[in-house]
Amino acid sequence: MTRVRMTVSALEAAHLTDIVLQFTDLLAEAIDGVDDPGVARLVPDGYRDAAEDAAEFRRLTQDDLLDRRRDDAALVLATLQRDGQTRRPQDLDRADAEAEVIVELDAGAVAAWLRTLTAVRLVIATRLGITTEEEQDDDPRFGVYNWLGFRLEGLLQAIED
Amino acid sequence: MTIPLEDVRLEERSEVTGPWQTVVWNDPVNLMSYVVHVFRTYFGYTREHAERLMLLVHHEGHAVVAEGAREQMEFHVQAMHDYGLWATVRRADT
């Protein structure tokens, strides 16, 4: 897999940082045992119509999966840092927001980005109650969801080329 | 010549358990291109095979993406969950 160079505005990088930080907080709560339907989608049942097998599978895999989500998110946040600092939208002044940021991703970082963007979209979809592929376009609440999908698609294209 | 006891146990077990399957289920969130990427990256399937499986998931609601021993299928299912796909283990004869 090739390395990927992505150009985004500082503001977009900051918004993405903000979203991934919120996701990290949510994961930390889940790892502490707080139930959240969005996080539940990240650790679905491994068996259908077999409650005992599903429970045993969950016991063996859930913590590992949530740890991996946390580690992926940490790697994504590291690639979004500028000058060694994590910047959220409120950390930018107006002139700074328009600046271009080059995000360089090696193979491991690309994989972490793909999984994290996917995981965040799954959580948002649960929150928004998305159950079909059609209802996502015009509603403004889907803005972030669609934007993450756009970035995900772009990354997939970049590694295909 | 003696057969190591471990080998005998393995053979008995595989006869008793029979083949199992990894089933991937459709969801409204994951991009088709991403599902193809996962099938190619994780299983090492060709683009054609990965796309065929993805379309099966999309149109039929699910697809069997691997068959084999139960432990192996559980390993695959965990890997699918790691990628954000919903997958389950089931017996091949159901």
UniProtKB/TrEMBL annotation, chain A:
Top-rank lineage group of the source organism: Bacteria
One Pfam family in the UniProt entry: DUF2017
InterPro entries, per database record: AosR
UniProt protein name: Uncharacterized protein
Species: Microbacterium laevaniformans
Automatic annotation (TrEMBL), chain B:
An MF annotation (GO) of this entry: peptidase activity
Superkingdom per UniProt: Bacteria
Pfam families: ClpS (PF02617)
InterPro entries, per the entry: ClpS, ClpS_core, Ribosomal_bL12_C/ClpS-like
Subunit note: Binds to the N-terminal domain of the chaperone ClpA.
Family the entry assigns: Belongs to the ClpS family.
Listed name of the protein: ATP-dependent Clp protease adapter protein ClpS
UniProt source species: Microbacterium laevaniformans
